Amino acid sequence: MNTQQRIHEFMTTNFYVPTGMELTSTTSFLDMGLIDSTGVLEVVSFLEREFAITVEDSELVPENLDSIANVSAFVDRKRGKG
Q1: Looking at the 3D structure of the chain, how many domains does it have?
Q2: Per-residue pLDDT tens for 5-62?
Q3: pLDDT of residue 55
Q4: Is residue 47 part of a domain?
Q5: Residue 43 domain-assigned?
Q6: In angstroms, rounded to a whole number, what is the distance separating the alpha carbons of residues 65 and 28?
Q7: How many angstroms separate the CA atoms of 57 and 75, rounded?
Q8: Residue 14 lies in a domain
Q9: Structural domain that includes position 42
Q10: Does 16 fall in a domain?
Q11: In the predicted model, is pLDDT for residue 82 greater than 70?
Q12: N or C: less crowded end of the chain, CB within 10 Å?
């Protein structure tokens, strides 16, 4: 399972995705109301545990954490793959 698939699975398992809403790689978590500030902390905890990275406070920005594509790219950068 690649990074995007793992993130997608986590999001659909741990957050409510309304019926009829498709969670694509570019769906904004915040715009669609999937996560709030507490949800961001859950996502960060998952990323640190699952991918063995450390997320700094300064990295808690939408550019890194607001969609599956953004999160995946962020993880790849942190792991030295991007």
Answers
A1: 1
A2: 999 999 999 999 888 888 999 999 999 999 998 999 999 999 999 999 999 999 999 9
A3: 97
A4: yes
A5: yes
A6: 9
A7: 15
A8: no
A9: 3-8+22-78
A10: no
A11: no
A12: N
**What is the distance between the alpha carbons of residues 29 and 71, in angstroms, rounded to a whole number?**
11
Check if the beta carbon of residue 82 is closer than 8 Å to that of residue 60: no
Structure tokens at 67: 């969609």
Angle between helices 3-14 and 37-51 (to 10 degrees): 140
Q: If you count them, how many residues does the chain have? A: 82
- Name the one residue in this structure whose structure tokens are 């990074």: 3
Give the pair of three-digit tokens for residue 23. 């969670």
42 with 14: CB under 8 angstroms? yes
CATH code of 54's domain? 1.10.1200.10
**Averaged confidence pLDDT in the chain:** 93
DSSP 8-state symbol, 61: S
Band of residue 79 on the pLDDT scale cut at 50, 70, 90? very high
Find out whether 35 and 29 touch, Cβ atoms under 8 Å.
yes
